[in-house]
Design goal:
Layout (H helix, E strand, L loop, with lengths): L22 H23 L6 H5 L4 H32 L5 H13 L2 H12 L6 H8 L7 H26 L3 H8 L4 H29 L3 H6 L10 H11 L1 H27 L1 H4 L1
Helix pairs in contact: 3-7, 3-9, 4-7, 7-9, 8-9, 9-12, 11-12
């Protein structure tokens, strides 16, 4: 009895299943890593490490950092309250026009942030579609306030949460929900007690992505909320303005944002996301 002869793989292509990486994939993968990592290394190499302390002690830096962290957290909270139910509608409901709704929800992913800021201004500005009614009823004008920062960040960051949660809902085993329904649980109870625990890693992953995107938001914020120190000036806006006057100070502020973003992603990856959510 003859045994099949294993194929002879070229030297540049590893045999499937041996754990190696084929050379045609390895080379562009390494180039991709270099493309993404080298700019960050350049930031570290060119950083004026001896001036980090004085630069961070400058007036306004602490306020900008605090505002960035608070507004990104509030934007993520808003996105969770609105985005998780929206993701459920897209993933589980039989609503007509879901494909159109999904396209509309994901538009901010590809829309230039400045355009998003203009759109928010036309709707929520003092003369906007809803902003005019709000101003006439309460005398409150939303643009150029801290609330406008939160809204702008939530507008551009919420699609990341919706996409992550929708994917988790589609991947979750619906038999558990069916079992809960057969035991007499209504839809709201099933959602709270069964669905949410099933998709918790996806919700956490989406929240982290949403928070990181909100933290780095620039275009929609400066268009809709302006750039007022202590009120609407977040760290990205402070970096942009400082770069025009003091490039070294802008590098220091960029390092702060880089450190906060990396620390958040690494800590939440191990504590909340779990291996299955992002690997």
């Amino acid at each position: 009895m003859t045994h099949p002869v294993p194929p002879k793989w070229p030297f540049w292509w590893r045999r499937p299943g041996d754990g190696g990486v084929p050379a045609p994939l390895l080379v562009p993968a390494l180039l991709g890593v270099a493309f993404l990592v080298l700019p960050l290394l350049g930031l570290l190499v060119r950083a004026p490490w001896s001036e980090i302390g004085p630069q961070l002690a400058r007036p306004g830096v602490g306020e900008a950092l605090r505002l960035s962290l608070v507004s990104a957290t509030l934007a993520t909270a808003v996105s969770l309250v609105l985005g998780v139910p929206l993701a459920w509608v897209l993933a589980r409901s039989q609503l007509r026009g879901r494909s159109v709704l999904r396209a509309l929800v994901t538009v901010p992913l590809v829309l230039p942030p400045v355009v998003g800021g203009v759109a928010l201004f036309l709707v929520l500005g003092r003369q906007g579609i809803l902003g005019r009614w709000l101003f006439e009823a309460t005398g409150f004008s939303l643009p150029f306030t801290t609330a406008a920062v939160v809204i702008a960040e939530a507008f551009v960051a919420m699609p990341f949460l919706v996409i992550s949660v929708e994917g988790a809902l589609r991947a979750a085993d619906a038999r558990f929900e069916d079992a809960a329904a057969t035991l007499g649980a209504d839809r709201w109870t099933t959602f709270r007690r069964v669905t949410l625990p099933l998709v918790a890693p996806g919700v956490a992953a989406g929240a982290v992505l949403c928070w990181a995107r909100a933290l780095g938001e620039f275009g929609a914020t400066i268009t809709f909320a302006g750039n007022f120190p202590g009120t609407t000036q977040t760290m990205p806006l402070a970096v942009y303005l400082t770069l025009q006057r003091e490039p070294e100070a802008a590098i220091v502020l960029s390092l702060v944002l880089l450190g906060v973003s990396l620390a958040t992603l690494l800590l939440l990856r191990d504590r909340w996301l779990g291996r299955g959510a992002v690997t």
